[in-house]
Amino acid sequence: MSKKVPLLIDGEFVASSTSNWIPVTNPATQEVIAEAPCATQSEMDAAVASAREAFQTWKEVPVSERARVMMRYQALLKEHHDEIAETLAQETGKTFEDAKGDVWRGIEVVEHAANIPSLLMGETVENVARKIDSYSYTQPMGICAGITPFNFPAMIPLWMFPLAIACGNTFILKPSEQDPLTPTRLAELFVEAGAPKGVLQVLHGGKDQVDFLLDHPEVRALSFVGSVPVAQYIYRRGTENMKRVQAFAGAKNHCVIMPDANKQQVINNLVGASVGAAGQRCMAISVAVFVGKAKEWIPELAEALKQVRPGAWNDEGASYGPLISPQAKKRVEKLISQGEQEGAQLLVDGRGCEVDGLPNGNWVGPTFFAGVKPDMEIYKTEIFGPVLCATEVESLDEALALVNANPFGNGTSIFTANGAAARKYQHEVEVGQVGINIPIPVPLPFFSFTGWKNSFFGDLHAYGKQAVRFYTETKTVTARWFESDIDATGPNMSIHL
Ligand code: NAD
Asked: According to its UniProt record, which protein family does this protein belong to (predicted)?
């Protein structure tokens, strides 16, 4: 019998009373390893009631005590790092190394949340008028919620709830129904770290559970990460309901390769950035833009991609795992066929990929197209599979025009030995996260994760100072203390201080 994933409501891990369960499968075998409940109306109501009550006490807990919960939490996450990564690898199919990276990038955010006292500091100005001072505080908002995707089941929940909770809020997490075991383990360790009852709730399910959070008047702020159509839906419905919303969406990330770059570094970096994690990363490089003579490296890149193979999470020779579901595999293979029909040169074909002993896995081999044009479906769509598209241009200006015409703006990178070219690219490119000789420029938590255009809807981004702004209200105080009655000089009829 497969494991029934519990809900976390009011500090207890409880079995849902729902009759609607979603199977969680091992994508390398299709074996059902667990079932996730679609939380019922009364379970969702209970989660909100508990989050409301917990907020009244949690917001009064001194900030250094809140920080200490995060210190204990990051220590526990480190202690259980490999065990979490193993659960994560089994339900996502990621290789163990990659799964460990997913957990680690989340732990870094918790370490950052442990610095919450200094992050919450407000501003002060003395003597804004005679004997009058002004200062500001950041105060928590109340109940915040987060809806997360399948592709980083540790890192992305950890982008959200530790910072929101460290700010003094309570939080309701609705993880992806495709890999709920990892977020559930994160929640267990959070409770073990001493998080008071009700500060974090975990509700599982799909659209109905998301709609509940979008419509509930007491949910003040909502963080979302996932695909573009769902991000747009969430941003529209959430803001229509007067909530603060940040919605991180899909991507089409370009890497510009200048002819003066180091060829071997370019090839090594492009292989990992394009097909690593089976291309199921919002920061994966999916388009390689070869400038001028750099196109001569395309055959060598094709050879390097042919050497890479997928495999099971615990196969040390495997470079990446299966796609998350048979539907995802079917969709990616269909896009590959479409690219071929549209006239792109299929130099490496990953369709029909097989892995010894695992005939039912959602395998797609590394795939590489050259001669890709902007009107082809494989260029326009986020493939979210191990597929790299190469395109050729004659100059850096042409490369910039191509990247800037793309509707997405999550990440990009340039490989060059020329500082002036790198400076020009960094300055002129209309993308929120830029790598210079770095293929996947995901910022560390003291910065923020800053996608642009169709890759992000909202204004304040994830983690860093921006997340603290997102999860708090600012209160400004203007104060005067009278020294004696002489200060009271009669009614002041103007708005001057
Ligand atoms: P998804 O949009 O299918 O699902 C994300 C979440 O939304 C899940 O929790 C799911 O249950 C919920 N959901 C799905 N359909 C819904 C609907 N109709 N109404 C309400 N809620 C719904 O995304 P996914 O397939 O899990 O994740 C992959 C996508 O996420 C890719 O597009 C990837 O680029 C994107 N992503 C973006 C970032 C970023 O930071 N920009 C990071 C990671 C992933």
From this structure: Belongs to the aldehyde dehydrogenase family.
